[in-house]
Structures are given as C-alpha cells and as structure tokens.
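fyi for ur records
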Amino acid sequence: MTGTDTGAHASDTGTVQNVSYNYGTVVANQNISEIQRLRGTPLPPDWIEDRLHPYLPDAETTKAVDAILDSYRVAVIHAGAGTGRYTTALHTLVHQGVKAVRQVRREPGEGVDLEGLKDEDTGWILDLRDKDETLRPGFGLHLREVTEHLRTMGSFVIVVTHSDTWTPVAAEATELGHRLSPPAALQVLRAHLERRQPPIGELDTWLAAGAVTEQLDDQATPAEAARWARVIIAAVELNATTSEPKAVGELVEAVVQSAHNNWRRTLRTWHTTNTDSAHRNYLLAAATLDGAPAETVYEAQSTLGEALNDTPPPTRGQQGPGIIALTDAIGAELGADDCIRFRKPGYAEAVVDYFWVDRPHHVAAFTRWTAEQAASLPPDLGVPLAERVTQWATRYTLAKQSFTVLRAIAVHWAKNSHLHGHAQDLLVAAAVDPTAGKRARDQYLAWAKAPDTDELTHRRNTPIVLKQALAGALAQLGPAYPQIALKRLSELAVNTTNDGVADAVGDALTALWDQPVLQGTIRSTLTSWFTTAQHHYTAAARRAFLHLADRTTPNGIPLLLAGDDSEPNAWALTGWRCALDDEANTHLQSAFDTWLDTALTHPHLRPAVIKTFTEAVFRSDTDRTYLAPRYLVLTHAAYGWEPARAGGEPTARTHLRDALVLALREADPTAPPRPHHAPATA
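which gave:
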C-alpha cells in the first residue's frame, strides 16, 4: 500500500507537483479537485486511477476489510500518520465494484449522520484523519446501527482515522476496526519508481544507494517513501534535460539534500562567499523565473534590484560578469535554448525560501516585484511564475506556520487585475491544504473581522484588495465548507465600509446561490442570522439578502419572486422584515426598485409584491405588531422609486406607488378607516 495520507495526522505531500513549465492550470485544477472531493461529489475515475497507480495491494488487508464490509457494510481503517489509510480505502471500495466512490461531506467539527447517505451502490469514505478530530461517545454505536440502511442502499462506508482517535470509542464497535500495517518503505519506493511512465532508469542503482536506503528504515512511512520517490523522479527528469547528464552516483547527494529540504547550508555558504548584491539578485531572479530565457532573467535582476532599493550601478562596455559567468556563479545551467534552469531538485524554491527567511523586511517589495513580473511577462512565462510562487508560498506557510508571506503575495497580486484570480487561487490552495487548511481558514476569519485599510502593508487592518480577493476565494470554498465560507463572508460584509468589498461579498453569495445544492444552506444560515441578538450577523444577513433580492432572472423577475403564486414567498418575506429594520440605504433602495419594476412590468406578480411589503410591516406572521419604522422605510423607498412631482400627470408608476403606500397605511390596525368616497388607486 503505497498511497499516502493527508491531514495533520498524516504527512502526505502527494498533491505537490512541479509546475516549472505548466501553463496556468495546475493550482486551479488542484483546488477544484480538492473541493470536489471535500464536497462529496463522485471522485473522478482518472483521479482514483492516479492515486491507486503506485498502490501495492496487500492480500491480507484486502481480505480482512472486505470481510468486515460484507458483514457490516461499515469498516474503520485506523493507523498512524502517512500509512496509506485513505488509499487503502479507495482500493477496497474499487475492489467492491461500487458504481461511485464519494467522500462523506462534513465540515470540521460537525457530527456524523450516516443514515442521511441516500445514494445507492456507492462507496463512501468518512475522512477523520485530522489531528483535531475527536469521536464522541456513541460514534461506534452509530456505525453499527447504520448497517441495515447501507445494506438497503447497496452501499458501503469506510472510516479512515488515526488509531489514537479511534481508541476511545473502539469498544463500541470492536468488530468494525482494522489496524493497518503499512508495507516496508523501500517496497513503496520501488513501486513508485517502477510504475512511473517511463520507468526510472538504473532503478537498482537508486535502490542500492546507501544515502537513500538508510533514510527509509523500518520506521519510515509510505508517505515518506513516496516523497523520496518524487524527489528522485524530479532529479532524473532535470538530469535528462541537461547538456551534460550526470551518473546516478552524482545525483544522490542532491536528492538527499532536497528530500531533507536541506539546501539552506549550501545557500548559506554561497551567500557568505558571494556578498555582491548583483550576484544575489541574479540568483533570486533566476530562481523565481526558473526556465525563463537568459535575456529575461538578466533584465529581471535589474528591476529586482530597484524593487529592493538596491539599484545596481551602470556598467560600461563589457565590465562585470555577463550572462554565462553569472549563470555559472549561481550554479544554474544555460541550455542550448538560451534558457536558465537549476538542475538540482527543489533548489529554485529553496533559493526563494532562503530569501523569505533571510530578508523578511523585503518580502513586501519582492512580492510586488513578482506581481509586476507575472503581469508584464508573456503568458508562457508570467502564468507559470504565478503558479510556482503560489505553491511555494503554500508550502512555506505550512512549514513556518506563518501567514506573513502568503498575505503579502495575496495583497500585491489582488491589486493587479491580471493576477487577481491567482491571488484567489493562492488563498484557496492554503485553505484546502490537508495540513495547513484549518489555520488558513482561521486566519481568513481574522482578516475578515479586521477594519478596512488602503495601506497594503498594514499589519492590524486588512487591505481592501485582500478582502475582495478573499470574498472570491470563499465563493470557491463554499461547496466544500458552506458554513465556514458563509461565516467569513458575513464578517466581511459587516466589517467593511467599502462598496467594492460589499459587492465582492454579494458576488460570492450569488455564486454560491447559483448552486442549487447550497441554496438550502444559505437560506437556513441567513434565517438564523435574521433574528439573532448579535448585531453583526443581522447586518450581514441584511446585506446578503438584499443582494439576492436584487438579482433577477433573464426575464427581469427577482429570483426570490419567480413563480406565478400571488402569495409572498415566506423566506423572502422574512428577509424583507429583517432588511426593513435598518435605516434606508442604497442596497435596500436598489432591491426595492427591482421589485417595484417587476410589479409594473409583470402585472400578474403585482399582488405578490404588494402583499410582501404590506406583510413586512408586521413583526412576524404570528406577532401582528405593526412596526411604524418599517412603514417609514418602505414609504421612503416608494418615493425614492417614484418621487412626487407637483402638478405632474398621473402615470403607471405613480399609480403603483400610491397603491402601495395606501395599502401600507390600511394595513395599520390603528389607522382610521378610509372614507367611502375616497378614490381608489390601482
């Protein structure tokens, strides 16, 4: 079983890819795949095949788990981190021949109700590997009780978790548990290298290299072996493109350093020897633009120096080293295509990582420079640059448990219209990261709650451009984490005075609303916020509702009013009541105008519109207290839609406005009755 785990109770790096030469799809595709997995959509066959390709099935494990599933339809695979629990579950369910494999949709901290799984002939994976997971008493009993339901559905459930997490409740369902025994790490390494296409050459030489094998002893996990395999594969691929390929023995040292993320000593020595900033800037520029043409890198070192307030003095004639000498000095290679590449796996990333640690006061300037480079370079250079930095920043954040770099990059990219989407990709990538995801989501909540600022480097307040990018990222995260996304969107809505941020929040809610599966969640969430005692939730609910109330179908009918029913939509009525408890504002006026326009142009909907507003002045359906402040807000909105004009001829608009105002007055139980001779307006 060579599959690797994800989560803080696991040490998987299986989602890491080398993106040096991709064209802008890797990070976005990874985000989409991870969100689809988390939201519970059927796992794509090609994704499953990719995960299982290097998997070494263990006959005893397969037999044991199959037997548990045959008897109880539920099994619990538990073990330590990085042992292949998730991939073993995938393999087992595929072996069962189910029509689809899905992950149980569950937000962090939520309870589990497996009887709610209604899909037939489905293999479900309940992923409980996170280190913060705790299983409440009764969890094991619930697993036993769901057996007949799953049998009726023709489905199975496999729970994957850490042994420490399972132990407190294991006695409730001892017969369901299977402790996974991982294979030897060297077997895993061999499987990954053998099954790569094309296979790794001189495989036996690699497997006999003592510097490699001594790292994969009996204590090493499959996840560690898989990571070593990826480093070896990267080294071999880089070596195959060099003009002077090296023998395996010469590559081993670089592989070991890369696998241990141990280029820092090498870089420290290089920086100690090379104190000239021109050389250092060339190294950093070449690493950031790894694979770019030499001319581009040479020009970039100058702009990088300027960005770091270190403008190099102009040279005359052929003074100073040229491209060939500089490239040799930084340990890179100038290829026959005149492009500069580093031939050591992970070295380019290590250079940038070294700079982030060594020069923290220049992080903001450097990220501005990367934004300028990514935006100004041709797409075949600029987009891969953004992809690389996105993955490097995510891994740096994970390793350092600090969001300083990630925030700086997101801010400066969000400010650039060409890179705004990449800023969102970066935020999404960190939020769905198996290990750093929870910390990232918590950090986003803090950013959402902080006041606005135009200052990009402000430490306490959150830059407006970052809030706008965060709203877009939360729209992407919504399908996987609907409650978490809505909570942070609500905080963004409450803690801003900027129309751009408010619009971004509204757009995010719109994007989520357009997914029918989430409409129920949005309704129930906003409903709870409509009446809460916490003002900031109510304010966010008003903003969100008014944005939805303002949206229309292609026929110009409000989405919340669509249909031929003459009665008010119950949820929309509740939302209007909440919205009218605030003072008149542009958002309310805009939504109100949309509804009155509809009543004017679609006469069959006029009764529903009029009744919605005449009912909205009452506290609730059960409490018929007529609230004068709501009446005043609606009257103000009505005259905002169609102002009174002295001496003007009545129009369809004035007739509709007057009809609404009159209906509002007559709804007041304390209002005097209208005289019989009073003219009626229609």
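The chain is about 55% helix and 5% strand. thats all i got for now
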